[in-house]
């Protein structure tokens, strides 16, 4: 079991860097996870991360790319609900990487 150091506290992550305990997530944890991925979280990232957490509360699962795009378009509008926008924010792997940064489980269809 690996751990992420967040403000002096150890947060358990699995071998892929996903949180072991979803309740450990907060914005500091998201920042640390993003830093490990070489991402500086900006307002556009936070918008998607909070949206993903809303999706998870509603459906109890992390969305694959297509449902993520549709949900984003539904909630944030068609300009933000495009794969190009999400790929730019999350380095070409929006469903997997955004779920990780949002503190959610890896989407079931992601390798």
Automatic annotation (TrEMBL):
Its EC number is 2.8.1.-. One of its GO terms (cellular component) is cytoplasm. It comes from the Bacteria. Its main location: cytoplasm. The active site is at residue 110. Keywords: Cytoplasm, Transferase. It is found in: Cytoplasm. One of its GO terms (molecular function) is sulfur carrier activity. InterPro entries: DsrC-like_C, DsrC-like_dom_sf, DsrC-like_N, DsrC/TusE. GO terms for biological process: tRNA wobble position uridine thiolation. Part of a sulfur-relay system. This is Sulfurtransferase.
